[in-house]
Amino acid sequence: MDPRLIRVLPWVTVAVLSLICAPSAHSQPHYTLVDLVDAATRRLQAAEPVVAAKFHSGAPVTALTEIPH
């Protein structure tokens, strides 16, 4: 067997095994555009009655941080 191959073979083995045994990285869940649009639609549907009631009563529409406790 070629001496160069004998020197390189352990390193190649380690590289291949590290690629095979390495855990896969999961950065973020995979959401489609449809999922994001559905979420935005649900939020708007929940907020619409509140805003309509405040509009009809003349009450100010304020952010949650501005509502007195």
What does this structure look like?
This protein has 69 residues and is an all-alpha fold. Helix content is 64%, strand content 0%. The chain contains two helices and no strands. It has helices spanning 3-21, 33-57. The longest helix has 25 residues, at 33-57. 0% of the residues are buried. The mean pLDDT is 78.
Identify the notable features of this structure and list them briefly:
single chain, 69 residues, mainly alpha, 2 helices
Count, helices: 2
Radius of gyration equals: 29 Å
N to C succession of SSEs? HH
End-to-end Cα distance, whole Å, is 81 Å
Structure classification = mainly alpha
Spans of at least 5 consecutive residues whose pLDDT stays below 50 are: none
Largest sheet: none
Q: What's the rounded overall pLDDT mean?
A: 78
Beta content comes to: under 5%
Task: Report the helical percentage.
Answer: 55-70%
The number of strands is 0
| Approximate shape | rod-shaped
Provide a quick synopsis of the model:
By secondary structure, this protein is an all-alpha fold.
Break the fold down into its secondary structure elements and pairings:
Layout (H helix, E strand, L loop, with lengths): L2 H19 L11 H25 L12
